[in-house]
Amino acid sequence: MAASECRVYLDHEVVTGFAIVKPAHFFGRDFVELLMVDPARRRSGTGRALLREALAAAGTAQVFTSTNKSNRPMRALLDAEDWSLSGELDGLDEGDPELVFFKDRPA
């Protein structure tokens, strides 16, 4: 099993966000397991940069991620970055379905 990779975003030598990527974890495809941005730095491009870096460095043709339906900031980021909805999983968090998204790695 491949180890997770952590991508860190620095702004003036201060960590403002990070992403945990599990190579080939989701049905043989890379999976962005966690993306966190300092709340004070949201909407500054940190999340966008982390997603783009994870996609550019992907070892698979597609990259997947997921978020709860209630997580509007992450859903807005994925929409802005043209990620496609793959499906919805019920039963993980009562009343808050998990939405699965994917995007093709750039050529």
Structure, explained:
- The chain has 107 residues and is α+β, with helices and mostly antiparallel strands.
- The protein has a single domain (5-104), classed as Aminopeptidase, CATH 3.40.630.30.
- The chain has two helices and six strands; from the N terminus they run βββαβαββ.
- It has a six-stranded mixed beta sheet, covered by helices on one side.
- Strand 3, helix 1 and strand 4 form a beta-alpha-beta unit.
The whole-number mean of residue pLDDT values reads: 92
Number of helical elements? 2
Q: Which sequence of SSEs, written as H and E, runs from N to C?
A: EEEHEHEE
Do you know the CATH architecture? 3-Layer(aba) Sandwich
Contiguous low-pLDDT stretches (5 residues minimum) are none
What is the radius of gyration computed over CA atoms, rounded to a whole number of angstroms?
A: 14 Å
Number of strands: 6
What global shape is seen? globular
Q: Which CATH C-level class is it?
A: Alpha Beta
Number of domains: 1
Would you tell me which CATH topology applies?
A: Aminopeptidase
Assembly of the depicted chains: single chain
